[in-house]
TrEMBL record:
This is SDR family oxidoreductase. Belongs to the short-chain dehydrogenases/reductases (SDR) family. InterPro entries: NAD(P)-bd_dom_sf, SDR_fam, SDR_oxidoreductase. It comes from the Bacteria. GO terms for molecular function: oxidoreductase activity. Keywords: Oxidoreductase. NCBIfam families: PRK06180.1, PRK08263.1. Signal peptide: none annotated.
């Protein structure tokens, strides 16, 4: 691939999506970028150019996503790389998170991405090429964090459907990568970006400790550089053998190995019982 390729990036008004869009435009790519509020997006990107197509999109609406995809095709002629970046964090214990709060997180993090995939694929299949990059999290591979159960569940879902999608679209020449970042210095942990339950339960001190750690100690102290994360995504989009799983950050690398070792230990410790369950 080259910088002649067309990118479609959701959730582009802040965080990793914004960094990616700015870097792509700076490197000469044509970019369609989406956000709920187009003025916020235009202001954040700060670029007026024929190469930049800002789009106001409700990621939860199939019709809105369809219109954005069609506008991108009519403007740039095609889409080569789709980045499903739109999403937000939810930090609350499972018992204290309401049904609606949980469903809202799934609606954006999971079903929003599925809307984009469903509407983009007809074009990618027709051109027999493309690359879908789904932004997950190390929390989509390792789930043992108090208060992050719903968020991790959404990201485990993203990992799961990405693996299936990769198998489904490979015959059409379409690549899939699920990106699993650790902690990066974006606004992910800042007020307004990380949602907490409206009805917290005092008994969950471990969840409150996790909330305090993330919101008051870790915010803007994260070790990961979003500029380097964006550069890594552009690099793998230009690789013919792009990975299905791309972990980003030394913390993500370490945590993934710990999870793999833990699963391997459980497998071998309980091997006899596991294998005894057949007829």
């Amino acid at each position: 691939m080259s910088n002649q390729n067309i990118w479609f990036v959701t959730g582009a008004s802040k965080g990793l999506g914004l960094t990616l869009v700015k870097k792509l435009l700076n490197q000469g790519y044509k970019v369609a970028a989406t956000s709920r509020n187009i003025s916020d997006l235009e202001s954040a990107v700060g670029v007026t150019s024929d190469a930049f197509l800002p789009l106001a999109v409700n990621i939860k609406s199939e019709e809105s996503v369809q219109q954005a995809i069609e506008k991108t095709i009519s403007t740039f002629g095609k889409i080569d790389v789709v980045v499903n970046n739109a999403g937000y964090g939810m930090l609350g214990g499972l018992e204290e998170t309401t049904d609606q709060e949980a469903r809202d997180n799934f609606d954006v993090n999971v079903f929003g991405s599925l809307n984009v995939i469903r509407k983009a694929l007809p074009y990618l299949r027709a051109q027999q090429s493309g690359h879908i990059i789904n932004i997950s999290s190390i929390g989509g591979f390792v789930g043992g964090y108090p208060g992050f159960g719903i968020y991790c569940a959404t990201k485990f879902a993203v990992n799961g459907f990405s693996e299936a999608l990769d198998a489904e679209v490979k015959p059409f020449g379409i690549k899939v990568t699920v990106v699993e970042p650790g902690y990066f210095r974006t606004n992910f942990l800042s007020e307004g970006s990380l949602i907490t339950p409206k009805n917290p339960i005092d008994a969950y001190q471990n969840v409150r400790d996790s909330q305090n750690l993330h919101q008051n100690q870790m915010d803007q102290q994260q070790a990961g550089d979003p500029e380097k994360a964006a550069a890594a995504m552009i690099k793998i989009a230009n690789q013919p053998d792009a990975p299905l799983n791309l972990f980003l950050g030394a913390d993500a690398y370490q945590l993934a190995h710990q999870k793999i070792a833990s699963v391997q230990n459980d497998l071998e410790t309980w091997k006899e019982l596991t294998n005894s369950t057949g007829f």
